[in-house]
Design goal:
Length: 158
């Protein structure tokens, strides 16, 4: 049964491989499902040995990180934010997850949160060009968004 730690670990590893295969073939919805199932299995590791816990933590982070990547491809940004936040609770300095979090917030047009996440990424990985360029994308998208908003308002009141 999947209620003992060793079985959970091996099943979660299989879910990761399944997710990777789905992701590679472009089936992002199936990939997200597989990654989430794997992450869910590792949520409760009651009775696990220290070795098993040492393995399950990073595996769960990887599953959540991959799940976020699949959600970004599906444009399901709120779900991507959630997966990133779960992963960052387990590993706060994860560069890829922090980048995906900023991308997901940007996808939701939550510019302040996107900027905060990208700045945090620069704190973890100083001088990282990916975060620097993401910050400028965030600024220009925010400017375009505000301009569009202003145009919509002026139409309403004219």
């Amino acid at each position: 049964s999947a209620d003992n730690p060793a079985a959970k670990l091996s099943l979660a590893q299989k879910k990761k491989e399944q997710g990777n295969a789905d992701f590679k073939s472009g089936d992002n919805a199936a990939a997200a499902r597989a990654y989430n199932d794997g992450a869910e299995l590792l949520k409760d590791m009651a009775g696990a040995s220290p070795e098993q816990l040492q393995e399950s933590g990073p595996l769960r982070v990887a599953l959540l990180a991959n799940s976020a990547a699949a959600y970004l491809k599906l444009n399901e940004n709120a779900k991507a934010v959630d997966a990133c936040q779960q992963a960052l609770r387990l590993q706060a300095d994860h560069v890829k997850v922090t980048f995906r979090l900023a991308q997901a917030y940007l996808g939701l047009s939550e510019f302040a949160d996107a900027q905060k996440a990208a700045q945090r990424g620069l704190g973890i990985s100083p001088g990282d060009a990916a975060f620097t360029s993401l910050l400028s994308v965030i600024s220009s998208k925010e400017a375009a968004y505000k301009k569009k908003e202003r145009a919509a308002y002026s139409k309403m009141f004219n």
